[in-house]
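Researcher: I'd like a structural prediction for the single chain below. Treat it as a standalone chain; there are no partners to consider.
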Amino acid sequence: MLSTSNLKTFIAVVETASFTTAAVRLHATQSGVSQQIAKLEEQLDVQLIDRTVNGASPTPAGKRLYEKALMIIDLLVQAESEARAFRKGLEGSVHIGLMPALTRVIAGPVHRRVIKNHPNLAIQITEQVSTDLIQSVLKGDIEFAIVPMFEAPESIFCQPLRTTYEVLVQASKPGDHHGHPIDLRGLHPMRLVLQSPGSIRREKILNELRAYGIEVKEVISIDSMFGTFEFVNQTDFVAILPAIMMVPEAFNRGLCIRPISNPQIGLDLIAIENKTKRNPQVGSMLLREYVCEIDQAHCQLDSLWQSPRAT
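Model: Treating it as a single chain, here is the predicted structure.
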């Protein structure tokens, strides 16, 4: 088995073309360097270095070994770095439950950071509608979830996350006023796509519209995010969706996205954990990460609404 020490010495000799200079680089003696190269040549039974009065140069065998030695040392450095990375961060496992509103734009950056900063923390992510997430947390199947605010039972630990807002989503057309605020009272009667009955968001949206006297002519229930996008894009139906999930379309205009000025419909998000299953350190870390990412999404959207690109 070749010694990594001998390989490093051999690399130094090839790169400096000198036993003396290699010894200086390695903080070793010239005789020690010579002995290591001689031992390497004896071990491989082939001459690796041509020794002349003008210096040291690799033989054909030496050139090939030099190429491989560089790869070996680089792999060892990477292996050491990756192994040491596991000394940092939180440990254990966590099952996270998220609504589609969060998995589309927010979750990816959050979990890339978490995986990098907490390599010993095993993460499982499940996407469900909010009512199913609440039940999963109650049963202990999911440790940490983010849902709209609701009256939680004593067995659930709740922390406020952020308040985001809903936007109107409709098919993109010339002159559609993309990015411009809209008063929904001027839009009725509405043909609206919503989640199925029982959804926390669905009931809140319908209650807000009724409170402002906005007539909803027809409602179709679609529990698929991509299904909603496709349906809206091909019809005159509109959807009311959380702004934070529509960042891509807000910028690429794949759909017409308009902030709702009246009635302003907020979405209060909370983090929930089963009190008997929760890991306070992990929960607090995830809360901070999601707050950070939601704030960043809001900043992106705010810059668009306030810029000429929205016109």
